[in-house]
């Protein structure tokens, strides 16, 4: 999955003036919402530019690398006081981005901001305010709970971790049972991604408060993907994770939570490599899930679904900067073959969390409608 692009840091005054003049950057920068308490940098402006300021008086070079939406790695300039500062070459895509610093050849996180697990490490994060951020905003509405669970796994001889979102009314309506969405992260991430980077719980809380969805549980666990090096995805074997998910995690969740424990009330979705896992497992185990969703994670074809029990929904999405035609064409073909298929394209985003936040927001109202 990983996202590669850049943040740049301000130059010296003269170079900064030249850069800003060339790009007509509006000087209304404010601290990123993901900054550590009391930290002024990184900052973002109303156009989507990012600006950072790092003190590294003993360093010879500092380079900043970000997720998709930046302009590639950029070497920063040091001032007389030992600060490396700068502004991205262009505006970044709306939403969340990972980034890190390269200081004299070593990889470091920015001490000014919070860390998020991505690229198989805890990386710095920055949020570029989105025009549609209201759907995942923290609001004065009833909130569900996200809790950590540890479940036994005989196949791996370990206790494994998952995070479970339960809707706001779960503790009050103790007789009600709920459908379940099993939601997977991408390569380089882990089971914290959908809550921390994706705001899945806030998306659900807001949709439930607006009466737009039927409440359901979300289960997020590690997809056992990060042992595979980037560029070797074709070597991934689904069997170990399929065993953990289908034979160990699902029975545990059905035993310890009030679920409607049948195929008709169970969905699987994933972003990027989590979509690839979703694709493989739903085809291998068509009697486990009734709703399939690939978020920047490939497509289904009628041929591979043939002779299997028909899902209630197939949802396929991506960003407009990815392969939107492939997604739309796949859904058209699926519809022609008699499947209930839906496509969604996130405008002006690429392989990044704003695409997947929006995708979950579109997917959730389509699940468990019966």
Automatic annotation (TrEMBL):
Keyword Plastid part of the UniProt annotation? no
The GO terms describing molecular function are: acyltransferase activity, transferring groups other than amino-acyl groups
Record's keyword annotation contains Magnesium: no
Q: Which superkingdom, per the lineage?
A: Bacteria
What keywords is this UniProt entry annotated with?
Answer: Signal
Segment forming the signal sequence? 1-21
Q: Which InterPro entries match?
A: AB_hydrolase_fold, Esterase-like, Ig-like_fold, Ig_E-set, Mycobacterial_A85_antigen
Which Pfam families does the entry mention? Esterase
UniProt xrefs under PANTHER family: DIACYLGLYCEROL ACYLTRANSFERASE_MYCOLYLTRANSFERASE AG85A (PTHR48098:SF1), ENTEROCHELIN ESTERASE-RELATED (PTHR48098)
Q: Which protein are we looking at? A: Enterochelin esterase
Higher taxonomy: Bacteria, Pseudomonadati, Bacteroidota, Chitinophagia, Chitinophagales
């Amino acid at each position: 999955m990983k996202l590669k692009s850049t943040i740049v840091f301000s130059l010296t005054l003269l170079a900064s003036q030249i850069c800003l003049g060339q790009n007509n950057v509006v000087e209304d920068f404010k601290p990123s919402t993901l900054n550590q308490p009391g930290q002024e940098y990184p900052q973002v402006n109303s156009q989507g530019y990012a600006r950072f300021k790092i003190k590294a008086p003993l360093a010879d070079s500092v380079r900043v690398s970000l997720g998709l939406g930046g302009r590639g790695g950029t070497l920063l300039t040091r001032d007389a006081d030992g600060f490396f500062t700068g502004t991205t070459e262009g505006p970044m895509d709306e939403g969340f981005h990972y980034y890190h610093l390269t200081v004299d050849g070593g990889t470091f996180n920015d001490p000014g901001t919070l860390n998020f697990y991505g690229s198989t490490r805890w990386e710095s994060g920055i949020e570029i305010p989105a025009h549609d951020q209201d759907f995942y905003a923290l609001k004065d509405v009833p909130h569900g709970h996200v809790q950590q669970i540890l479940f036994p796994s005989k196949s791996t001889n370990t206790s494994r971790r998952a995070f479970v979102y339960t809707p706001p009314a779960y503790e009050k309506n103790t007789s009600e049972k709920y459908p379940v969405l099993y939601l997977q992260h991408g390569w380089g991430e882990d089971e914290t991604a959908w809550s921390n980077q994706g705001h899945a719980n806030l998306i659900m809380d807001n949709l439930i408060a607006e009466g737009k969805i039927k409440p359901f549980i979300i289960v997020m666990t590690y997809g056992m993907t990060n042992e595979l090096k980037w560029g070797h995805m074709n070597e991934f074997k689904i069997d170990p994770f399929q065993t953990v998910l289908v034979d160990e995690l699902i029975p545990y969740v059905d035993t310890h939570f009030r679920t409607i424990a049948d195929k008709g009330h169970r969905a699987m979705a994933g972003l990027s490599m989590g979509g690839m896992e979703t694709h493989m497992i739903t085809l291998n185990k068509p009697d486990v899930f009734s709703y399939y969703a690939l978020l920047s994670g490939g497509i289904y074809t009628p041929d591979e679904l043939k002779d299997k029990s028909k899902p209630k929904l197939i949802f396929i999405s991506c960003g407009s900067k990815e392969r939107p035609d492939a997604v739309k064409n796949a859904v058209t073909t699926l519809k022609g073959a008699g499947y209930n298929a839906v496509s969604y394209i996130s405008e002006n985003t690429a392989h990044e969390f704003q695409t997947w936040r929006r995708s979950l927001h579109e997917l959730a109202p389509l699940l468990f409608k019966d």
